[in-house]
Design a protein that fits this description.
Helix content is 37%, strand content 11%. With 176 residues, it is an alpha/beta fold. A 4-stranded parallel β-sheet has the order 1-4-2-3. Helix 2 packs across helix 3. The longest helix has 17 residues.
Length: 176
């Protein structure tokens, strides 16, 4: 018997965390982003996701109207905004009690695979997307295949053709 009484089958602390290898998690993140892109649910912003020239008293209404106008609100599925740095006004507008059903904003360091997949669409700043790709490429070869592909994609967007580029050629190794 325990002095002072005791509980026969008392609560025991348990941990339900799953440990994944870094390479598996990195591939899952890139696959989730790719899935959103293929479905047309990934939107990349060239600039910051910030609201300018709107007073704090009408910020929530303005944001809700913007989401409704874009079809990004609750009716069309919630929207995840991914930013590179903290956006005070934007976070404040989305933290209001009625806005939680409409959208959510996260800094890229806090984005998880589940966050990318559970929302209806993902709106991400270009700098945040670059950070996500750089952070989640540990399973790729050291040559940086993914960053090279992004660079090629941005060159095509800028109108630079493959023939216009002077790519360095490797000289063949000479055995002696």
């Amino acid at each position: 018997m325990l002095r002072g009484g005791g509980v026969a089958f008392g609560p025991k602390p348990r941990d339900f965390a799953t440990e994944l290898n870094r390479k598996v998690y990195d591939r899952a993140m890139r696959t989730a982003i790719s899935y959103r892109y293929r479905k047309g649910e990934l939107f990349v912003l060239e600039d910051e996701a910030e609201i300018y020239d709107v007073g704090r008293e009408s910020l929530e209404r303005y944001t809700k109207d913007f989401l409704r106008w874009q079809g990004w609100g609750h009716a069309g599925g919630r929207t995840l905004f991914v930013t590179r740095e903290r956006r005070e006004d934007f976070e404040w507008a989305l933290s209001r009690e009625t806005m939680g059903r409409e959208a959510r904003v996260l800094e890229c360091e806090w984005v998880d695979v589940k966050d990318v997949l559970e929302m209806g669409r993902v709106v991400v700043e270009r700098r945040a997307l670059d950070w996500l790709f750089r952070e989640h490429e540990s399973d790729l070869p050291k040559e940086g295949r993914l960053m090279r592909a992004l660079r090629d994609l941005s060159r095509k967007d800028a109108g630079v053709m493959e023939d216009d580029l002077e790519l360095p050629t490797k000289s063949p190794a000479v055995k002696t």
